[in-house]
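#onboarding

Welcome to the new folks! Below is a worked example of what a typical request in this channel looks like: someone posts a single protein sequence, and someone else replies with the predicted structure as tokens. Don't worry about understanding the tokens yet, we'll cover that in week two.

Example request:
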Amino acid sequence: MKIEKQLQDDHQVKLIVEVEPERMEANKRRAARKLAERGKIPGFRPGKAPYDVIRLHYGDEAIIEQAVDFLVDEVYPKALEEADIKPAAPGALESVDSLEPPKFTFVIPMLPTVELGDYKSIRLPYKYKEPTKAKVDEAIEELQRMYATTETVEQPAAMGNYVMADVRGEMTKPKEGEDLSKLSRDGAAFLIRKDNKDDEWPYPGFSLELVGLKPGDSKTVSFKYPKDYDDELLAGQTVKYDVKVNTVRSVTLPELDDEFVKMVGEFENMEALREAVKKDLEARTQAEYDDDYFVELIDKIKSGATIKYPPQVLDHESEHVIEDLRRRLSSQGLDLETYVKVRNTSMDKFMEEEVQPVAVKRLERSLILDEIARAEKIEVDEESLNQEFGQTLTEMQYQGADLTKIGGGKRAQKEFAEAVAMESANRLMTRRTMERLKAIALGEAEAEEKPKKTAAKKSEGSGASKSAAKPKKKATTKKAAGTTKSAPKASSAKKKTPAAKKPGSTSTGKKNTESKS
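Example response:
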């Protein structure tokens, strides 16, 4: 077998494989027997007709087509082994270049590669600060509002009131074809307060414009969004909002006493409740800070790194982005097709302009983390993995999962346990990699670290070569050289290998990092 190896710019490799003619002849006879077994040839039992009779009955083209399928399945894994290639995903039979001698061209996606550069020299201060007393007071006030009573009043809206209003937004210089429906809402609810969040709709501070308005009153306000505004549709644009107030409701907060403590939960007193609120706020704010910190840190590493991967790997990540989006939309009672339609775009454009950029960020950050875990010899020991496994199960139960109702018998239970174990291992590996990265970025890591024995090794390309041992086949064959009949179409083979293991299984944290640029 002769093999010519050609590296492609898109991180794939072409293998041009020439096979001994005798192997083609052997597979033609094998193919003939297969055809004879599937059908009836007059005067012969199934599979017992002579080769020449089978040729006359089915024709050379059918025999050659089946023989090519057999030969490709036989040759492809051996070609991978001889060329020392571990695929990232199933390869494809691009063309049958010749039948005399048999010659095939395969295109194979290579495993992603990451050159980290001098990541150990990168520094990024960690400036998280615990929530102030004022922030804790604000969180407790939010709890009060959850248990507050409201009453409709026929008086001008004031600070602390809820207002229900219809809002109509009109952009002064709209872009052609843009969906402007997000600028208007009927029955929108607003809480009038000075410290409204930055994500207040339709812009921060809008609720303050409602002070002094009574039910039935109308008002028009204009707002110019900053040029660096997160929403590209609104960045730098001026929008006029027409507001009509429907209802004003006063709010009565419960007293911060023992009765309130009992309503909120099982706490001994107000002091215990305050401590619990403080711890919860610290956990949430630190998680948010960590997400931002590690996204920035990984992006700094990425700027000095060289990352290569084939298009199939990015396609695989894009599928995960779409799956995540479908789940989020489903929880809101929406579907992806309707969402894309409301956005006034096509699915192809949505995939190209919104899904793929998110997939690129997720994939590249994940590959960087995987490579750092290897470079820093991050370990997962059995005791820690068992603890993480238990924590994962506890979180699932806390979120409402009933683990006693897993159907499908022992096999399904085993598969579920394996999935939870894999998720736990990934989480633990990610967390330890992040801790190591943080130590490096703060200049606290040791210059040299002695290698340790890992309890769970991640071998490069694990499972990839097996899952990609058979090529997919494209309809790109050439006419067989020196023959009177067309070469069989490679696309006629329907066999496909299962998808290769997704490279880059870690993530930067619970929050979706794709929202970061």
